[in-house]
Amino acid sequence: MNHSAAETGGNGFGDFFRRGALGALRRKAAVAFAVFAIAAVAACTDGPRVNAPGPVTEGSVSEQAGASMPPDADIDYELGTGDRLRVLVFGEPDLSGEFDVGGAGVVALPLIGQVRARGLTLSAFEDAVETKLRDGYLTSPRVSVEVLNYRPFYIYGEVSSPGQYPYTSSMTVLNAVAVAGGYTYRANQDKVYITRGEGNEVEYPASQAVRVLPGDVLRVPERFF
Question: Which of 52, 91, 114, 129 has the fewest CB atoms nearer than 10 Å to its CB?
Fold first, then answer.
């Protein structure tokens, strides 16, 4: 009888301690969950926000495509017929002056005669002049060349006044269209075709981001109604 009571008492104390331990674990779990929830909310509130990408519009696509054509300042400009150059031979004023790139793509210079310019960058043309001067004329020539007037660009197609026009620095497609009197009512104002040098005709968006270079040939297409 006493033994049963002892067992009963022992089991009662055991159940009490087990319930106490279980309650403590539950309280710890609740505290941990609360801390995690607060941290998550703080991270969402104070952390950097990442905006979802907006819809891609036709204008944004055009601007991105236009950016693929670098500005003229980033392009090694190649000389061509119609460019007017200032050639300075240091210490030799009689060999210096202003000269045009002729129809054959050459420049006629004092003493050394014709030097090919078409297709050369300014630095390459400087080297060519120095090489000729070094060939029996000057020991250590130093030459500097700059473009005074660029050759014209050409625009035709659906513009009001197609033709040849003087090039101005940092000219864009929209500038060129404006110089040619603007679009006709039939013009596709979203794109333009450009032929550069000896290359093929390439399509570009009609954007302020697309640069025109001297000698470029622009074609404004007709839109389909």
Answer: 52
Q: Are strands 201-205 and 143-149 parallel, antiparallel or unpaired?
A: unpaired
Checking if the pLDDT of 153 tops 60, the result is yes
- The answer to whether 170 and 156 are in contact (CB under 8 A) is no
Q: Which CATH class is domain 152-220?
A: alpha beta
| Cβ neighbourhood burial of 221 (10 Å; 0-12, 13-18, 19+) | middle
User: What's the pTM value of the predicted model, to 2 decimals?
Assistant: 0.60
Asked if residue 147 lies in contact with residue 168, where contact means CB atoms within 8 angstroms, the answer is no
Burial class of residue 185 (count of CB atoms within 10 Å of its CB; 0-12, 13-18, 19+): exposed
According to CATH, the topology of domain 84-149 is: wza like fold (3.30.1950)
Sequence ranges of the domains in the chain: 1-39, 84-149, 152-220
Q: Which two tokens stand for residue 204?
A: 């570009």
| Tokens 């006629």, located at residue | 108
